[in-house]
Amino acid sequence: MLRQYELVERVKSYDPDADEELLNRAYVFSMKAHGAQLRASGDPYFSHPIEVAGILTDLHLDDETIATAILHDTVEDTVATQEQIEKLFGPSVGRLVDGVTKLSRIEAQTDSERAAENFRKFLLAMSDDIRVLLVKLADRLHNMRTLHHISKPDKRRRIARETMEIYAPLAERIGMYEFMNELQELSFKELEPEGFAAIQERLQTLRAGGGDLVARITSGIKLILAQNGIEADVTGREKRPFSIWRKMEERHIAFEKLSDVMAFRVIVADVGDCYRALGVLHQRWPMVPGRFKDFISTPKRNGYRSLHTTLIHNANMRIEVQIRTGSMHRENELGLAAHWAYKQGLDGKEPEAHYPWLQDLLEILENAASPEELLEHAKLAMYQDTVFCFTPKGELIQLPKGSTPVDFAYALHTGLGDTTVGAKINGRVVPLRTQLANGDQVEILRSKAQEPDPAWETFVVTGKARSAIRRSIRHKERDELIGLGLKLYDEIAARVTTPLSESAVDGALKRLKLTTREALFIALAKQTVSDEALLDALLPGVKEGKRPVRAERQKSAISIKGLTPGVAFQLADCCHPIPGDRIVGVRRPGTGIEVHTIDCAMLEREAESEWVDLAWSADSDAAVARLQAVLRNEPGSLAVLTGTLAQAGVNIVNLHMKHRDREFHTFTVDVEVDHLSQLTSVIASLRAAQPIVSVDRVKA
Fold first, then answer.
1. C-alpha angle 283/289/290, rounded to 5°?
2. Which of 68, 248, 417, 614 is least surrounded by Cβ atoms within 10 Å, i.e. has the fewest?
3. Among 316, 358, 312, which Cα is nearest to 336's?
4. Active site residue: 43, 76, 185, 352, which one?
């Protein structure tokens, strides 16, 4: 453990103007506050914050951040208060300590909820001062280095999994690759001990068989560059076990078939030498097609710059080579910490201005409906390889691999994503589910009348897009539930012979523990409040047999237009109701109303459920009906089927071959129709076609 004077000297060695008194006061305060507390290892607890501070001195961070590291556990684990910290060390250190502090032990039912709540608070603190992230990463790194002292395997695995899924990607996002690599390595060792040991053993065998292979290749690269007038510092290393493990999983190959297990770094004087060195190496050794990346002309979102290429060094060996300047190397290694190491800070700008991905995470935080959803979308925002695409004006947009035009639109602006109706890639109109490739120029087509389609969620890959789509669905669901609940409330109120006053309704809300009328309507629509419970709340103290209630249960059918799956009304998949069918709604607690045709066989099983009389509204949208068609097994019969549907102006949503034999083929066809009368006409046209043997509507 660093002694007080040693810690101060380390800070003063790179920052002579550091506030020595601040560091001394923090050291003494933390030591006294933690007192006789011990860690799982048996060491004094005070050693942990000092080691965290020591890690941050290696990054040459400012005195306020070092003081925060020393104090970061005092509010959580000792009797010290946040007010004390601010009074003794100033508002800036107080704010940082408050951001790092966990505040309180979070009581949650699941590990994911606890992790998500920690992550939510973490994001909010990061948005205020991103140095909070630096202290938290150093804190987690030291905890991972001492993880083996924790006796409970389940707890070790939980901490390791959270580190792998949250903290390592965050370290990568701010360009701190050494932190990322060590966090991944320590997590991998805990989560996959057998895999870690196996790779370590095979690396040892490789070293024994090849001698000092890394040193020989390093000398060869340096020599060929020197012969071409390029002075370079060349270093080499074996890839880390986790990196090897990930490549084996991605490529589905064994260790023996993994050829590029060594990586080399070439550091040159300037950007021109980077490209000259690349040319020399490609001339000397063939490159592996598709494995060259230019992060100098198109840096990563975290500011990382370098040239990456993979060479075939000899007949059976591939090596990865990274080429960069000295300044690039320092910034790549320090990442975010470089801003404070060079006394630049963030130049007075908000963290989101330097790190756009942080703004994406904050939007996800705002839109998430649950802790699990927050974690899911945040992981999507932090993981994945990158593709580089361009707007029609030439602006570069970086997106995760597998992204679609919808992801692209949401990356530009949430409002653009919400109103997307189509897209052009390189001038050609494409489906919205098309995956983008490096260099694509993407133009988004929009309409003010458009709103997010729930089907988009099945193919978008960015957390920002997915959270925005789900937010839109939730808002639409809420509006429809309120409308449905209002109709149900009016129907219930109409059964009460005594007029209901405003105070009676307000009193009912209090008895039902609801805050607003909208909340009441949603509860009625979802049947979390039953009709009887509402009557009891409206007419308290009046027994059921003595209530002034009319005998009739429902005066008229509730008209519906709801055709969006998963919202207030959901069309049943068993009978595929369409406008014109006689319909009934099945109302279950906690969900919307499921709409069935009056003759649906499934209704026999719903005898105990509450039914609602429904009717289609005059402006109902098109709905999907399912047909079963039997065709003769002869050329052109399917073309006749689809051609007849096209002639009738009917869109085919799905076509599936259900059965085939030598004489006949049976298909199920889902078609969009406006009304039952249109479907009847379509069926008649199909039955008149020569190669079609029979056509019937399917309701089961």
1. 130
2. 248
3. 358
4. 76
pTM: 0.59
In contact, 383 and 172? CB cutoff 8 Å = no
Instruction: Beginning with the edge strand found earlier in the chain, give each strand of the sheet holding 558-560 in spatial order.
Output: 558-560, 610-616, 583-587, 593-597, 569-571
CA angle 166, 172, 178 (to 5 degrees): 110
> What single-letter DSSP state applies at residue 557?
P
Q: pLDDT tens-digit profile of 423-465?
A: 999 889 999 999 998 778 899 999 988 888 888 988 998 878 8
Sheet holding 442-446, edge to edge: 428-430, 420-425, 442-446
408: pLDDT strictly greater than 80: yes
Task: Name the strand (E) or helix (H) holding 257.
Answer: none
In angstroms, what is the C-alpha Rg of the chain?
33
Q: Are 671 and 650 in contact (CB under 8 A)?
A: yes
For residue 308, list its beta bridge partners: 293, 322
C-alpha 531/C-alpha 553 separation (Å) is 10
What span, in angstroms and rounded, lies between the C-alpha atoms of 140 and 155? 14
Residue of 20, 43, 77, 113 marked active site: 77
Structure tokens at 293: 């990346």
Count helices and strands (H / E) in the chain.
Answer: 28, 19
**For a pLDDT cut of 70, what percent of the chain falls above it?**
82
Is residue 77 part of the annotated active site? The answer reads yes
Spatial separation of the C-alpha atoms in residues 575 and 596, rounded to whole Å = 6
Answer whether 539's CB lies under 8 Å from 546's CB.
Answer: no
Cβ proximity of 563 and 623 under 8 Å:
yes
pLDDT tens by residue, 619-671: 667 788 999 999 999 899 999 999 999 998 899 988 999 888 888 999 999 99
Look up residue 379 and give its two tokens: 């992981």
| 328 vs 324: CA distance, rounded Å | 6
Q: What's the CA gap between 74 and 101, in Å, rounded?
A: 8
